[in-house]
Design a protein that fits this description.
The complex is a heterotrimer of chains A (52), B (315) and C (66).
Chain A: E1 11-14, H1 21-38
Chain B: H1 2-17, E1 23-28, E2 37-41, E3 50-51, E4 71-75, H2 77-88, E5 97-101, H3 110-117, E6 121-127, E7 130-135, E8 140-143, H4 150-153, E9 165-166, H5 181-187, H6 191-202, H7 210-214, H8 239-252, H9 262-266, H10 274-288
Parallel strand pairs in B: 1-4, 4-5, 5-9
Antiparallel strand pairs in B: 1-2, 1-3, 6-7, 7-8
Chain C: E1 8-13, H1 17-26, E2 35-40, H2 48-56, E3 61-65
Classes of the chains: A mainly alpha (52), B alpha/beta (315), C alpha/beta (66).
Chain lengths: 52, 315, 66
């Protein structure tokens, strides 16, 4: 992804157990913050009308 | 190269006569200069068609997938590595194969020659390390090493890795080759520049899927581009769809691509398709210290779980 | 664009993060409303097709969590 020119941080991975709700909330905040700081995406958005 | 041709014919004749194989897959002369085509020889008296020169860039392992009959196959270094991939992925049975190994000194890039010659090319003759080009312009002689395909110039596995017999002595492997110079160049660009680079690269793509068809790794019964429910990637030449196609195709080849250059060679508009697969090849090499297609008895790294697998991308 | 909020498509494993999200909800914890959750049966179900589709349709970010 990054190699192709999508900014690092747009795609994130994590591992959270079903008991770790606090970690879940923490990670959601982190992810949102990083992506907010990157701003709206410029590339790779399909603009043409969808067929079918 | 003439000795190679003679030897390939001799071996194939013997194999077919003794009914050791049902057919031999090799190359025959194409109708256009520098475009040899794959051929399937089933009859011992047809072996005269088989040839070998520096225009045999297509990967013959492509024609092995799912075959059940006994096959003799002419294989240069990269073909043999792709045969190993097929063996690892259970696409073909080793017992059904008779591999005629061809130590390879690289294939020539017809586009490079076309560009430097500039006129219509009518005939190309090879003479050792020289390439003689005849056509509408004057006859010209080029050094083979100057017109090699890019992946051949940086190839470090010229000799077949598995074979039943060889047509000639093994050639010396290239050493100290910087295989990833171009990848590093792209890696050092900022995101916007990378985006623009690939945009420029793909602007000519007509989505003919020749790269997919020539690729020995692309054997899914239904390719993701042909799926319509759900439709993962649009059929148009919208830049986003084109990018999705190339991107996903590269992903499918991660840890499997042998950098044989077939995709690039067959591209009708000359896109450097390897720019995508090469990055993944480099990653696999760096993360797992792995090169595909060298040993049929070892499972590839993306196929097995190890506790020391890198995981620092996970939070 | 000062009040721009990102849209984040998140692919959550049914057994891990989806459970965590559920627990977070039950425990009335607060977290940003930018994520749009898609439940997948297992993080192993994830495929590059999915996040490409999400990005193509205009998501600003993708988060995969097992």
């Amino acid at each position: 992804m990054e190699h192709m020119g999508i900014e690092p941080g747009r795609l994130q991975f994590s591992w959270i157990s079903s008991a770790e709700s606090t970690k879940f909330v923490k990670v959601v905040k982190e992810v949102t913050e990083t992506i907010k700081s990157l701003g709206p995406r410029k590339h790779f958005i399909k603009t043409e009308a969808k067929v079918a | 190269m003439l000795e190679y041709t003679e030897k390939i014919r001799e071996i194939s004749q013997k194999l077919l006569k003794d009914s050791k194989v049902d057919m031999v897959i090799g190359f025959r002369k194409g109708t256009v200069p520098m475009m040899n085509e794959p051929t399937f020889i089933r009859n011992a008296n047809e072996v005269g068609q088989l040839i070998w020169d520096s225009n045999c860039g297509i990967n013959l392992a492509n024609y092995l997938t799912g075959r059940k009959e006994k096959i003799g196959i002419v294989a240069k270094g990269c073909d043999s590595r792709n045969i190993v991939v097929h063996l690892v992925e259970n696409k073909v049975n080793r017992d059904n194969l008779h591999i005629i190994g061809v130590p390879c000194k690289g294939m020539i890039d017809r586009r490079k020659i076309g560009v430097i010659y500039g006129e219509e090319i009518l005939n190309v003759v090879e003479d050792g390390e020289k390439i003689v080009v005849e056509g509408d312009g004057d006859e010209k002689v080029y050094d083979k090493k100057d017109v090699l395909q890019e992946n051949c110039a940086i190839c470090i596995h010229r000799n077949p890795v598995i074979y039943d017999e060889l047509v000639a002595d093994l050639v010396e492997e290239q050493k100290d080759v910087d295989r990833y110079e171009d990848v590093r160049k792209i890696e050092s660009m900022p995101p916007d520049e990378k985006w623009a680079y690939f945009e420029g690269l793909l602007k000519n793509c007509i989505r003919c899927y020749a790269c997919r068809n020539a690729c020995p790794l692309c054997y899914c019964p239904t390719c993701f581009v042909d799926e319509s429910r759900p439709q993962w990637v649009g059929k148009s030449i919208d830049p986003v769809d084109t990018r999705t196609f190339h991107f996903l195709r590269a992903y499918h080849c991660a840890g499997r691509c042998t950098d044989c250059g077939a995709c690039e060679r067959v591209c009708p508009v000359g896109i450097n398709v390897r720019a995508f697969t090469k990055k993944l090849e480099k990653d696999v090499k760096e993360l797992y210290d792995w090169e595909i297609g060298l040993d049929p008895n070892v499972r590839p790294p993306l196929d097995v779980y190890k506790t020391q697998d890198p995981e620092d991308f996970i939070k | 664009m000062s009040d721009w909020e990102p849209k984040i498509v998140s692919f959550l494993c049914n057994w891990c993060s989806y459970g965590a999200a559920d627990l977070a909800g039950v425990s009335r914890m607060e977290y940003p409303p930018n994520i749009r959750v898609i439940r997948i049966p297992c993080a192993g179900r994830m495929s590059p097709k999915f996040f490409l589709a999400a990005l193509r349709e205009g998501a600003d970010g993708v988060w995969v969590s097992g």
